[in-house]
């Protein structure tokens, strides 16, 4: 399934200096800026508060955050975070994406195919153990030792309960610290409530990353235990419909995906000159393809809707990222910061002996990465063969081969600790639309040929004498992988059974894997370990230079960000921090994406028009924070993070508290919607609204 991850990443427009501000940082719970919290807000969290908060927050393994909001396993997250689930449960006859969904009883709740929810149980610092295993190593030896030690640690952490626990090694400060995070793993996750697309994404792409906003970007899931009953959980957040007042302390507890604030200048230039232009060009072409497909019929528009929303979101975010790295002022400030740090590290013989010159190493490895990048993205990452059939086939081909190896020698995504997630995705019951799959695969294979060249040996082997379109048609028309029983039989039969298969998608996957493994080996042996080893040295130098007063880059692990409810000044105009329901009706038109759902039109007279709808705060967030609870010092939910303003797009590389804002759904809007619009009295009661 496709869980849409919102990328609140990087700003366009006029960019000022890059200040280090009070609210900056996505902090691990064991290294909070306690003195700042107490001095700035008069708040000193107790260990009991931290433990409850940790166990009340959850991670959607597909790329979002959420939180328990009742004692019966009810999880609050964003509408866009469950869009893939809703799409998978929809059909032409039952369009849950556009019509919404409300289960009136637990018996009506629908299981989300392939969705996994994780709750953090504990963490352990394993830095000394990892650094001992990696000491003095480089290249392939470094990669092999790192993979082996990570597998051992994760296996020890999981024990014999891999279907109930998940353990991940989290690298902080570029490998300067290693922690193992143990999660409770829940794979029976069911849809309880999702508003209509017109409500969950009101304003569409024009309003995306902007404010004022009027989005009911919320949905409810429920976690079920191994007995098939709703999970009984003692730790959860109470929703406070009153919310927070302007200037009041608010904190996000979520799982920000990735930031790049500690990259060197050479790494930033690779992003600016290669990575972002490539991703934007591919996405723009793909968007045009999806728009053309959508224009052909209402059913095609329904099929492509979630994918198109995702692509447009990514284009807008990466455009902001690109524009920021084109800013001479931003890059000059980054250059000055690096120069000061590097001068400190190289001005003393002891430091030079201790840390070496990681900047030069990282510069050299960037040259190798630039030469490999396009082939790697097209072949190994899968941009050159975009099809659900091929995705399943590649999982079967590579996964069954990897399973035959000792755990510590496998690719990380097929370790014993990761297999339950792999299997959940492989065996998920997702709808297939042949015309849609045929179009995507034919187009992506043509891009593979275009990018790598007609005479590329891999292209010749993959396409043979066929055109991209004819090969795509053959695979989609004749592959049997759409049948779950077939996928299970192949997976359980192992590599021998998969090799013997005459399924055309499997055959293509073998051809792709032959070249993809060469690229992966080059990356795993000659690029990533060199980069990681240098980053490790850089992190050691940074600790000596700054200590841990700077938060580590985001790693899709649990973080706390503090801030306050506050608007900002835009070209001399004060932007207020709140919108209300009345503003929603004033903004509405008779045309998408500003057309109201029928349910809201019908409920208009019953609603409290003064109730707050969306709000902004100074919290430091990025993609992956979507669905994060915004809580107050009492541990009450006072907002639901779903986006950032256009200025917050700078969050990947820097944070500016004067203009960066996190956008959240106000709990008053959630309460009004459930009570007046959707008449979900049973949920209102369970949520104690």
Layout of secondary structure:
Elements: H1 34-41, H2 47-56, E1 57-60, E2 64-68, E3 74-77, H3 83-88, H4 96-99, E4 101-102, E5 110-111, E6 117-125, H5 127-134, H6 139-158, E7 165-172, E8 177-186, E9 189-194, H7 197-200, H8 204-207, E10 219-223, E11 238-239, E12 249-254, H9 265-294, H10 298-325, H11 328-346, H12 349-355, H13 358-380, H14 388-403, H15 419-426, H16 434-452, H17 457-463, H18 468-478, H19 484-500, H20 504-546, E13 559-564, E14 568-570, E15 573-575, E16 578-580, H21 581-587, H22 598-603, E17 612-617, E18 629-631, E19 636-644, E20 662-665, H23 667-677, H24 681-687
Parallel strand pairs: 11-19
Antiparallel strand pairs: 1-2, 1-6, 2-3, 3-10, 4-9, 5-9, 6-8, 7-8, 9-10, 12-13, 12-18, 14-15, 16-17, 17-20, 18-19, 19-20
Helix pairs in contact: 5-6, 6-20, 9-10, 9-13, 13-16, 13-20, 14-19, 14-20, 16-18
Q: Please tally the helical runs, counting DSSP H or I stretches of 4 or more residues.
A: 24
Helix content: 40-55%
Q: How many β-strands, per DSSP?
A: 20
Q: Determine the strand fraction and express it as a percent band.
A: 5-15%
The best one-word shape is globular
Structural class: alpha+beta
Any idea what the radius of gyration is?
25 Å
What integer is the average pLDDT?
93
- How far apart, in Å, are the first and last alpha carbons? 32 Å
State the major sheet. Answer: 10 strands, antiparallel
Low-confidence stretches: 1-20
């Amino acid at each position: 399934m496709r869980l849409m991850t919102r990328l609140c990443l990087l700003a366009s427009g006029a960019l000022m200096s890059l200040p280090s501000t009070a609210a900056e940082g996505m902090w691990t719970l064991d290294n909070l800026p306690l003195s700042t919290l107490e001095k700035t807000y008069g708040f000193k969290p107790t260990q009991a508060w931290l433990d409850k908060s940790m166990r009340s927050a959850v991670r959607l393994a597909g790329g979002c955050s959420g939180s328990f909001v009742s004692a019966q396993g009810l999880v609050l997250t964003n509408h866009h975070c469950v869009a893939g689930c809703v799409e998978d449960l929809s059909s032409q006859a039952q369009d849950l994406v556009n019509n919404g969904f409300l289960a009136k009883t637990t018996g009506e709740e629908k299981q989300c195919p392939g969705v996994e929810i994780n709750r953090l149980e504990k963490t352990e610092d394993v830095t000394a153990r990892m650094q001992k295993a990696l000491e003095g190593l480089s290249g392939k030896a470094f990669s092999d030792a790192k993979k082996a030690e990570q597998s051992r640690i994760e296996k020890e952490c999981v024990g014999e309960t891999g279907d109930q626990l998940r353990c991940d090694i989290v690298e902080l400060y570029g490998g300067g610290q290693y922690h193992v995070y143990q999660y409770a793993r829940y794979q029976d996750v069911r849809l309880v409530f999702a508003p209509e697309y017109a409500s969950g994404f009101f304003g569409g792409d024009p309003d995306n990353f902007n404010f004022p906003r009027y989005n009911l970007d919320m949905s409810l899931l429920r976690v079920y235990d191994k007995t098939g009953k709703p999970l009984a959980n003692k730790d959860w957040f109470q929703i406070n419909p009153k919310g927070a007042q302007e200037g009041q302390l608010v904190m996000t507890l979520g799982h920000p995906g990735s930031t790049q604030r500690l990259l060197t200048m050479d790494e930033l230039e690779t992003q600016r000159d290669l990575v972002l232009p490539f991703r934007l060009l591919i996405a723009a072409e793909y968007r045009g393809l999806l728009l053309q497909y959508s224009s052909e019929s209402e059913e095609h528009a329904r099929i492509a809707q979630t994918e198109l929303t995702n692509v447009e979101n990514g284009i807008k975010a990466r455009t902001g990222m690109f524009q920021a790295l084109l800013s001479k002022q931003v890059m000059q400030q980054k250059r000055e910061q690096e120069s000061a740090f590097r001068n400190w590290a190289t001005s003393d013989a002891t430091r030079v002996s201790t840390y070496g010159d990681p900047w030069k190493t990282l510069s050299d490895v960037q040259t190798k990465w630039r030469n490999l990048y396009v082939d790697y993205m097209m072949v190994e990452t899968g941009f050159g063969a975009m099809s659900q059939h091929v995705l399943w086939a590649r999982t079967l081909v590579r996964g069954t081969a990897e399973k035959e190896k000792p755990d510590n020698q496998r690719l990380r995504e097929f370790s014993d600790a990761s297999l339950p997630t792999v299997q959940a995705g492989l065996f998920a019951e997702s709808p297939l639309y042949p015309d849609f799959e045929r179009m995507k695969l034919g187009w992506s294979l043509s891009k593979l040929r275009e990018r790598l060249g007609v005479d590329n040996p891999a292209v010749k082997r993959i396409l043979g004498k066929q055109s991209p379109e004819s090969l795509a048609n053959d695979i989609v028309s004749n592959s049997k992988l759409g049948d779950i029983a077939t996928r299970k039989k192949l997976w359980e039969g192992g590599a021998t059974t998969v090799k013997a298969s005459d399924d055309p998608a499997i055959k293509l996957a073998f051809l792709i894997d032959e070249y993809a493994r060469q690229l992966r080996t080059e990356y795993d042996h000659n690029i990533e370990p060199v980069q990681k080893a240098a980053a490790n040295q850089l992190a050691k130098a940074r600790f000596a230079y700054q200590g841990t007063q700077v938060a580590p880059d985001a790693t899709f692990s649990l973080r706390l960000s503090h801030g306050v409810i506050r608007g900002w000044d835009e070209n001399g105009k004060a932007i207020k921090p709140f919108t209300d329901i009345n503003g929603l009706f004033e903004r509405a038109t008779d045309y998408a994406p500003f057309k109201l759902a029928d349910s809201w039109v019908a409920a208009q007279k019953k609603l409290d028009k003064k109730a707050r709808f969306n709000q902004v705060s100074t919290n430091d967030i990025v993609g992956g924070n979507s669905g994060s609870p915004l809580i107050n010092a009492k541990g009450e939910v006072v907002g639901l993070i779903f986006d950032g303003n256009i200025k917050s797009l700078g969050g990947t590389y820097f944070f500016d508290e004067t203009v960066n804002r996190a956008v959240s759904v106000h709990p008053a809007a959630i309460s009004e919607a459930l009570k007046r619009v959707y008449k979900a009295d049973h949920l209102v009661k369970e949520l104690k609204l």
